[in-house]
Amino acid sequence: RVLRLSRRFKVVWRLVNGLLTAGGTMLSTTALISLTLFISGCVAVEIITKDNDLISNPSTGPIVHYYFGSLPKSCLTLLQFVTVDSLAAVYYPLIVEKPYLSLFFLPLMILISVCLMNLVTAVLVETSMSFTASEQERERLETKEKIKQALPDLCNLFDEWDEDHDGSITRAELGKLPIDVLPAYLVEVMPVDSMSELFDLLDVDETNSLTREELVDGLLNLLLLDIPRWAIEHVKMLRLIR
Model confidence over 95-140: pLDDT tens digits? Predict the structure, then answer.
């Protein structure tokens, strides 16, 4: 339970760190969106707020006055394109009255609602993937260092497990041992639950015995190489065939 809890905390830490590392990206995105809205608001003032036909029209006059009465109001109205919040009630009457306004609203919708929002998502995903990759590399280096420290202990344990002192251990000798006989920091990252499973995974030549070299090399490959079990078994079998 403690190990599972620590793994969950790792996930929480990754989420929190992802938010922290994405702070610069979010600020840059906010600045870009604000600049886009400001420029679009200036354009809206020129082509909508100052249009006498729209102001005098009974159906569009209240819209122009309420949504585009000033530059701040125009920017706040165009902010709806970010959230895609009830846009039709704003642009539909204006476009019906002045069809050329579609050349203003449609590119704005594509730029803000689609392009910028998807760009933000892509940057956040890329940041998260980069952080995850760096975390995995750090964990791999830590595991490698722990295994290096465990090599002398593994050699001594092999001598203890080799009851008949013939330089190899059988499945019977290894299978009766609990997985906890391995160093604790190896048990944490070991992808097996028993010594019998470990023996079956390392004994790819099916000789029912493991030498010291096979045990140590097998553990190194199993814990350090980011490849599936079957790939390790296939590589060793090919070596034996050669």
Answer: 998 999 999 988 888 888 788 778 777 777 777 777 777 877 787 7
Structure-token pair, residue 34:
């604000």
In sequence order, the 6+-apart residues with CB closer than 8 A to the CB of 120 are: 25, 26, 29
Bin 167: left if φ > 0, else alpha if -120 < ψ < 50, else beta. left
Per DSSP, 79 falls in state: T
Distance, CA of 241 to CA of 26 (rounded, Å): 56
- Residue 194 — φ and ψ, nearest 5°? -150, 160
Flag whether pLDDT at 228 surpasses 70: no
Three-state secondary structure of 3-54: HHHHHHHHHHHHHHHHHHHCHHHHHHHHHHHHHHHHHHHHHHHHHHHCCHHH
